[in-house]
């Protein structure tokens, strides 16, 4: 059999082991965006993964989301590196405090490879790329409630050879039920739905291990940017405003919603990267358990007073702190901080929020992720786009760029 790039050739609907071996041996060939016609299927290549896509079964694969997948791989690599640094630092402190620890105890504290949960697998492309491209990753659990998607995912896992077959495991199940029955089990949980992630957030924040990461996408930008405020409030618990900063407000609404769900279980979030790209927003947050830290949540949330006549806006924080008997106490904030009419144009204010008004990025994480992307340029199909986004964010954090959006970010962060 000759392998002719760009032309169709015979392959059974369900590839035999010999055919799969043939494809496995061809995996090291040069990657391209070319789709090969294979008796009703297409071979989609992205990064180090390739999948069979059968248009007749309706299994979804959004090639435009390569930016999303590349950014996720970059942040995941940073997370694994930071996790190792944190574990080594903690291990050193423990040894200093207790130098008589037995070797068996030290061995027991060895850091395990992170477990990743992809809640909505579809074709399995994202899960397979995680397994094959991210060094130091452990098991990848892929879920989907659609049987055709699960069948396609299993087929693609086998299609990609031994690494994918050994690391990726797929289940036909409702992701919400699975996450609820596996509390604090996964170091990374990835939610990338078609539309709103709101119905997955409560179970997702419970399934992330302490110090783990939640990666979450929202594509319902019309809702988050104010075209349907009632729907936004019902899904995210916040009123959006139509303003020049609507995309950043969408990010902050999503972060506030995740924090709200986390607080119900004495947990809180720490954002490391929040981006608006193409037609969606994507946030990367770490989740920690701490009843005392959770008390600070009202200090990180604000209502927005937006003038209906000009660009003037003001932020009303939900909470404040005061000291009593040398102890820090928490209380509702004083207000209102605006007059009935705008001091600049005399028009009234409309109120939006609450939104997350603390920083939405961690500068150290952004710089580390960008450095990794540059160093591994050839391994990112969407290198130009994600490097540009990360560079812009790193420059804003360094006060290099001065724009309406950067002013808003710094105003909110202070």
TrEMBL record:
Name of the molecule in the record: tRNA methyltransferase Trm1 protein
Which keywords are on file for this protein?
Answer: Methyltransferase, Transferase
Q: What class of enzyme is it?
A: transferase
What EC number(s) would the UniProt record show?
Answer: 2.1.1.216
**Taxon lineage:** Eukaryota, Viridiplantae, Streptophyta, Embryophyta, Tracheophyta
